[in-house]
Recover the amino acids of this structure.
């Protein structure tokens, strides 16, 4: 059986490597040209799996780009973006998942004003 000290050490190591891999995947999604969509799509899938396994936080810019239900990278052809009462509403056209961003009442703007 492992001592608690070595266990903690291995956990730290695992966290560090998983964060590194997360950064690499983010780099693939952000910096690789749109044409290689299959590669970016695979990276998005892997990123979600990695975050789930290691309980990492999703980087905010990518969290907004990817559908949370079917893990598809959203663009203008497979999603619909609307702004309503100060909220950003993103609808995935593949699985019809609706995401509302920014919703507290203090952020609302009434239509008449
Ligand atoms: Zn979707």
């Amino acid at each position: 059986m492992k001592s608690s000290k070595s266990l903690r050490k291995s956990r730290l190591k695992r966290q560090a490597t998983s964060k590194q891999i997360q950064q690499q995947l983010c780099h693939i999604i952000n910096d690789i040209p749109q044409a290689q969509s299959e590669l970016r799509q695979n990276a998005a899938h892997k990123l979600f799996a990695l975050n789930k396994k290691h309980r990492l936080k999703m980087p905010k810019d990518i969290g907004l780009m990817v559908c949370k239900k079917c893990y598809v990278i959203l663009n203008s052809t497979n999603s619909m973006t609307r702004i309503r009462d100060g909220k950003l509403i993103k609808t995935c056209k593949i699985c019809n998942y609706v995401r509302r961003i920014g919703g507290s009442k203090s952020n609302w703007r009434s239509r008449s004003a």
DSSP finds three helices and three strands in the chain.
